[in-house]
Records
---
Amino acid sequence: MNRPILDVKNLHIRYGGASTDAVRGVSFTLGRERLGIVGESGSGKSTVGRALLRLLPSARISADTMRFEDIDLLSLTEKQMLAVRGRRMSMILQDPKFSLNPIRKVGDQVAETYLRHFKCSRQEARDKAIAMLGAVKINDPDRVFEQYPHEISGGMGQRVMIAMMLLADPDVVIADEPTSALDVTVRLQVLNILDNLVRDRGIGLIMISHDLNLVRNFCDRVLIMYAGRVVETLAARDLDKAQHPYTRGLLAAQPRIGGARAPLAVLDRRPEWLEEVSR
Amino acid sequence: MTVSVETRNLSISFGHGPNALKVLPDVSFSVAPGECFGLVGESGSGKSTVLRCISMLTDFWKGDVLINGRSVRDIPLIERCRILQMVFQDPYGSLHPRQSVRTVLSEPLRIHKLDDREDRMHKALSDVGLPLSFLDRFPHQLSGGQRQRVAIARALILEPSLLLLDEPTSALDVSVQAEVLNLLQRLRDEHGFTYIMVTHDLAVVDHMCDRFAVMLRGEITEILPREAISGAQATHPYSRELIGASLEYEGHV
């Protein structure tokens, strides 16, 4: 395989004022693949995603390595970071209701990505934005361009977010719970669009989610996080063969269609999971 | 005691005059005593509104809601609260941040002038599997699953027969969801509760419910038995799409 796009070794993150680290010694690499990070709320999965984009101003981040292509992310100044964030590495957030600006037209927000990062005219940015809205399968992109966020549905909003993030043609996309706020029927459409774009463009994708079904179907590899550590790394198709009791516990706790109606298995949290290191 | 629920031609509009929006045009279904009945559909399809109508949290609807054959409108508030209770989606939003668990649980007892308050509170807490020491905790000292248990204990404290569950686990992690679903299942076995459960997760329906209604734009497209999910027995195109998407999402296809 080629040299990985992202290389993270021994990442520690501590929020300002906290007495313990939220992320403790996480290491992983990302090539041109789809990497899932799963875990429960509070396991530190979103914190890792945000730290990569340096979106945690009050936190202390340390790592042996945090390299993105040929850039050392830890040593960049904020000014240099602006040329990376949104241009070469971007993030799709959970809920379009909160992540789009409610008082600006949808299209202007998408076009802004292009205007911000490339030298071009407003008309050019507009054309690019409309083409991108079409690429995420929005019917009638010219009309949607002129609409405000409250006028579009959740599924459409999330497609707008995807368009916005892909317009600058980044090398890495971090999707933080991109479909948790959507209905099942819409969720699949959005995931398929994201999946196709990521494959066609050879983008490295980090999919942060609490949903095991999602990472099983839409990722190549999966990191399972518990209490700020990676407890297990698996190929997504081998998720059912997971070894770690935490991963197995999560899988067993999930109700399944056609499953037995016996009480669901409940996680028996072991104190040693907090300390052991991923094999 | 277990109760049956029947809604007949339930309809409701929000707004007035030309801007009025008919959210539920005409909803009818019946739930047998001790049954767990699911309501599924996409957001905005009116699932939660049905629960709010049955519980009279929204009271300007037309049609009939009968509980054990008696119209819910004819049941005085005090009595109604002892028959039906609601559990809301988000335990982070449905508990008062400045009220301790004791305050939350004792208020209904005070209003209803019930004695043996300590005993009743202890029973409600042990029913939901929380230690008695939690009475003096505040919501911020509880995890999401513990909060939802407190919300369920609050619903149980007046010993109702019908629980209206509005997405009781969708804000929770799978591991915590398993605990809450097991709890609801056990309480139903022990007390013979009737449940009406709103959810968007068909795996939860399959696990919990006997029958379920698929809603689309305020209308019930179809009422199906639980077996219809894995057996592909749905006939309405939207139900088929919903079930198909859920199966595909779970990786059955």
---
Amino acid sequence: MVFEYAPAPESTKIVNLKSNYDLFIGGKFVKTKSGSTYKTINPATEEVLAEIIEASQKDVDEAVKAARRAYKTWSKLSGSERGKYLYRIARIIQERSRELAVLESMNNGKPIRESRDIDIPLVAAHFFHYAGWADKLDYAGLGKNPQALGVAGQIIPWNFPLLMLSWKIAPALAAGNTVVLKPAETTPLTAMLFAEICQQAELPDGVVNIITGAGQTGQYLVNHPDIDKVAFTGSTEVGRLIAQSVSGTNKKVTLELGGKAANIVFDDAAMDQAVEGVVNGIFFNQGHVCCAGSRLLLQESISDEFLNLLYARMKTLRLGDPLDKNTDVGAINSASQLAKIKELSESGKSEGAQMWSAPCEIPNKGFWFAPTVFTNVSLSHRIAREEIFGPVLSVLTFRTPDEAIEKANNTPFGLSAGIWTEKGSRILEVAHKLRAGVIWANTFNKFDPTSPFGGYKESGYGREGGRHGLEPYLKAGK
Amino acid sequence: MNVLKDDPLVLPALLRDATNSDSALKKFLNGLSGVDKVGVEERVARLGTRSIKTTAKAEGIDLAIRMIDLTTLEGMDTKGKVKSLCAKAKRPDPLDPSVPSVAAVCVYSDLVSIAKENLSGTSIKVAAVATGFPSGRVSLAAKLQDTSDAVSQGADEIDMVIDRGAFHEGRFLDIYDQIQSIKQVCKAAHLKVILETGELKTYDNVKKASWIAMLAGADFIKTSTGKVQPAATLPVTLVMLQAIRDFELATHRRIGMKPAGGIKTTKDAMKYLVVLKETLGDNWMNPDMFRFGASSLLNDLLMQRQKMKNGAYSGPDYVTVD
């Protein structure tokens, strides 16, 4: 091998990891009333990083009470005053971005290149964006002087821990709500660091409360009688349960759930950039992306040529140490997620699809899955219908634009889609007919705080981001 | 016209047909898949974040030195200037004999014999720019004369320019024919075809011009003369490398690549090597298949090399200015 890249690991020295983390309630770190603890690990090494509290019902109650108390004053602050705190948080996130990026990669397994260049900059951008909205709510399209809802219970997933936190907390606070947020069981650490940032920003006590734990803790939060709003991002299964448990209450709900996005490549696409877009669409963040382009719809006339380019490109993906600056594909977040990916891949093989995996060395420790492509997939296969949430691409072919649209829409989900063609009129026509909340043309997995994000059908309801992202946190004014 | 019968390059039938007529060539070139500007630039930006450290950097620096076409292309070039450039090409760092020689010295055609003389007994090649460099705005007869002058003086490599005017007029076959004519005059000398991408403007044009040059028998395709801004850029280089890969897939023939102009720092050079490695792979990671057209790059590589060796940055007074 010529010019083999030497290891280029990002130092972990910048992270001041504690051996255990308490709950963040009422502006202070407090011990649990009656909950137990569990250990959070680094999925790339299986090393224990810290001990975390599994919050009990009593803890959740304390957190909601703290948020309710804080709501009385926070919601009365002027918008510009609230904005000041959000700007301050945004700036601290920028200042501590390297620390946040390293910790995110340690706890989640994602490559440092992504946490450094994508996650953390977007987190800061979201706080900046909503900081700007705080004193302009009259222009949110909800009438004059719209009002905050009260206390929001927010539950976020493990795939983009801090980014999902920012999507939840920034608009809620800008609109005058206070929050109780539960990070995912496997990735609580950047949320705990965020709690420190709230203290550093001198955010009034109780405006942000962070409780850790698993599904049970989440249920306590969702079912708490004194919350006004539930915001959830995660699996469709859990989303369904949440929708059931809040029905008949006055709680407002937004759900951002699963997806099985079609990435449609037409024969007149810019070939190399489409290959790149397909790679970024499914292998970004190990495919742990709800809007991942997990179904490649390929025009039959170019399928051989395209797949050869795709395989060649995938051979250059570098899987390994998430903290190495040259890593493209990091670790799978947990043993249970790895088991799910393996189970679905096995089903793909047994249902007759053809499996090809990029030749990469799999480390001995940790949870890993090589970037994988399934060809000869038909729409009835489980790997074409169920969300794998891993680095696995299912390839289907089509002959005409109508067939592409039909196949793309033939899914219970409808979160995102991609269109690759050099023909502008085709982009407009196809986008118009796709039932998906986000449609990218000649690009994929692009996020921006100004742009609303959300899905159709089983991908959930409500929008996050931009002006639309304020609506779930406001009562319309007069 | 079909000169291909005399050409050692045997193209598959489909590609042979593509050069049968002006309209066939135009149709072929327009049938190539497009290039998305945003996507190309995003890809090189991402490759640009590769972290090249320690052993990789040391290897990359020596490889880059070995890939340099050390260039002087000034109206004020003299025999003395070429002489000292040759000395530098042979022994880039007088204090350190472990530094490898560069690949070639690149001069105007009237200075070829001087370069040849001063490089005799070495494996360093002499490249000559020809064909009315840099604008190419002279008759074909003059271009042929310019080329054969350089070849008869012993040039190992000819860096020709394409007729960009013809390109913008859509006279693709004229460009193809000219390259073929020059190629015949080159005889054994290697032919590098300069596209002058700064005047082609779009990535689609760069891709088309790359194909014209490769079909016509170029051994290398080269971005720029260095006289037009922008000269070499990473995205243009990526587009050309991908064209080279497509051409290899179609013909089993490997074409070399030479970005030229504007590559000044070690950091730049490492980025080019990253793009090369991750696009074409190890088969291209050598001076037979990849060159840097540069002059000031060499000194920055030498300074970085000294720094890696001695642990301290020496500064520009510790490398020679030739």
